[in-house]
Prior knowledge:
5-stranded mixed sheet, Aldehyde Oxidoreductase, domain 4, iron ion binding, alpha+beta, 7-stranded mixed sheet, Xanthine dehydrogenase family protein molybdopterin-binding subunit, binds dioxothiomolybdenum(VI) ion, 3 domains, Ald_Oxase/Xan_DH_a/b, Aldehyde Oxidoreductase, domain 3, about 25% strand
Amino acid sequence: MSDTIETPSGAMPASRTRFGSNSGQPMTRRDGVLKVTGGATFAADNHPEGMLHAVYAAATISRGRVTSLNVDAARAHPGVVEVLTPANRPPLAIDPDTKPYPFAFRTEVLQDDTVRYAGQPIALVVAETLESATEAARLLSPTYDASPARIDFDTVEPFDPQAVGVGSPPTAEKGDVEAGLAQASHRVDARYETPGQYHNAMEPHAIVATWDGDRLTLDTPNQAIVMSTGSFGAWFGIPAENVTIRSPFLGGGFGSKAIIVGPQILTILAAKMLGRPVKLALRRDQMYGPVGHRGATRQEFRLGVDADGHLTALDHLTTAVTSTFEDFIEPASNASHDLYATPALSSRHKAVRLDIGTPGPMRAPGEASGSAALESAIDEAALVAGLDPLEFRLRNYAETDPASGKPFSAKALRECYAEGAERFGWSKRPLEPRQMRDEAGRLVGWGMGTALFPASMFQANATATLRADGTALVETAGADMGQGAWTALHQIAADGLGLDIGSVEFRSGHSGLPDGGIAGGSGHTATAGNALHAAGTDVIAKLADLATNDENSPLFGAGNVGVEARDGRLYRADDPDRSQSYGEILARAGLAEIEGAGQGGRDPASAEERAMFSHGAVFAEVTIDPDLGQIRVTRLVGAFAAGRIVNPRLATSQLYGGMIWGIGFALHEEAVHDKRSGRIMNANLAEYRVPVNADVPAMDVILVDEHDPHVNPLGIKGVGEIGITGTVGAIANAIWHATGVRFRRFPINIVDLL
Ligand code: MOS
């Protein structure tokens, strides 16, 4: 494969990883112009003929019953077509209080008058206009029989999910933790808290549902397009093939668009009832409840360290918040499974049920919260051991996976530490806190954290069609929620065909295409990418057969030495002067096109043998105003090793995005509940704080070379989620280094410092 253009110095990330003639290049987003010019069609942009608008009324209490709804007033409002309540809601094919299929979340679809959290849909109004539906929903004026909200962690008894048969996250037990703690020279016993956080995608959830007999068409953002056809179909008793999902663009997903949620089902139901297309677009405040969130956690650590600074035991117990009706339990303790060598390891999860919407996967589920706490605890362990935090991490470097004992498929974490530390200037860090000030007299602190995320894969299929004119079509139902699938997958597909990306048409974002798997778990590029590449190489193999068996081809008889595909031509591997264009080969064979197919997925045998992760190291500098307590992150350097990098520009953007989320996790994001009503008091983007440009410092991402021959044929790992994981701890540790005070509750707030 040919090498590619050099990175212009300074302007682009310092990647040395290049592969293919398209992959490895820092191409800009192929959907970028469409998006910035308004040409990209998002779900709510669809207005089929005869479409109605739906708006739901939401509960303002957290627990109890709806005792009345003024349905007459709502119905009498001009333009109103229907009001759905538990009294007239048509039946569904499945019971919403069961788990009828994998990945299903029990949800609220007006099954009864019970209120289980504030913000729960309690009625759906359908009208000719959005304004009419909005006003009529207000006229419903619900009354309630309210019970006290259970919102406070401390007032509810935790339960052990394993003991009660609820799906628990995986746990780890290795060695004798109590013995390890007993023999330790130093101990860290610390409890950390992380808050409820909400996905807050730029594009709130939206759906346009259109029925044609028993066929259903949905315009809705979705991270798992083909799988979701079956999930939606199950609610209405129709087969997957009767459901079409169009999801060409998503304005962010972060996990919340990987699950089917109640408001979507209600909209489809209304469309069926009324025989007209119906649209529902959630308001920003409605994003705080029925569409998932990152559940709050409390995490208790017990760490033992011997006199040489080696861990003797690592014990991580997470207590996570879940809802009263669904069992998603944030798998935060999993963060301790795969990073630090220890003879004794224990990880467990408990849960408390509160009157809140069900939590769900949110960008780096488990690892984000778990790593925030783990990396803080490791910093505390380095302190008691009297060691520099990087030195401590190197002493406890895991050569094999601590939880499973398996070798890593590849692990360039040492290189991440070294390259990140060098770029940051870590060697100049004083061991003691409160040693550095900037020119304005602000306290300066430096901290670091290790980043880790599993190299997941799902299952994907793809097809490729080479046409007589030498161009090609590739297809897979991928999902681009902003991460760059339209570009990165297209690059990989073009390489599989040995064509320039400009000669390859890429179709995606539609359930009628081959199943592209899930855009989640940081595994989409690896999974769909391998499928697309394999589809291309399948075509090339067929093409090579034609040419090498054709007596009049310059490639005749080259079957044994092999041929190479590049720039739309096949070349004899041993003689680059003998070649033939794809178009000529097809023409001589009298074919209009050649089709190929490919699959992507984890080889079960290799997964059995090896532990597969992306790794990284994040270094942070903060300044703190000693009088005002104002915290500023002034520098962030992240070095990440994630196998082959398909597009250094987009990978860097993904890592920037993750690291910026890390700033938000460390310093800003928190859903604040009113303890009497249970309502979220900051369900808007003004008061639910996320980092803005002024909060984002100079950021530096280093893409560290890593060749992983085991993870999948192309050696691709994920970059979508890992950026959060090291960053939160790095910032918290920098705050300790600036102040000498350890904050164990996130977000760390200006109020904490006063
Ligand atoms: Mo992600 S939370 O796997 O979409």
